[in-house]
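Lecture notes, part 5. Sequence design as translation. It can be helpful to think of inverse folding as translation between two languages: the language of shapes and the language of residues. The source text, in structure tokens, appears below.
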């Protein structure tokens, strides 16, 4: 008899909006996995955008280059808070990052919607910049 052992999925730590703000104030970096269009409408100061999904006429398509793109910006030991619009894409992205060996990565539950709702500072890029 052959048994195939599958390693368990890494446990995703999800933080709320207040914890996310505190982490960002203490050295964590913000990875925004929303689309470029969503990101251009506003994001926390210092956020880096790498879309996790693309919205196409055929539906949502996972960014096949996501892990490679993130690896060019962040090291596997960097402290990262992953956020999206509400926390759905970010939990998927966080799981993928943890599986790829990113050790200090947390999901931001509530996402940018919670950030904006609390009135925390939002950077809105100027057109043409």
């Amino acid at each position: 008899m052959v048994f195939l052992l599958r390693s368990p999925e890494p446990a995703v730590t999800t933080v709320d909006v207040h914890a996310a703000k505190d982490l960002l104030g203490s050295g964590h970096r913000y990875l925004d996995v929303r689309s470029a269009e969503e990101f251009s409408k506003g994001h926390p100061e210092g956020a880096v955008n790498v879309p996790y999904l693309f919205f196409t006429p055929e539906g949502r398509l996972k960014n096949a280059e996501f892990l490679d793109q993130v690896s060019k910006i962040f090291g596997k030991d960097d402290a990262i808070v992953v956020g999206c619009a509400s926390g759905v894409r970010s939990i998927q992205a966080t799981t993928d990052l943890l599986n790829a060996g990113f050790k200090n990565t947390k999901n931001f539950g509530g996402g940018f919607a919670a950030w904006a709702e609390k009135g925390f500072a939002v950077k809105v890029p100027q057109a043409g910049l």
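The translated text above is only one of many valid answers, since several sequences can fold into similar shapes. The chain has one domain: 14-117.
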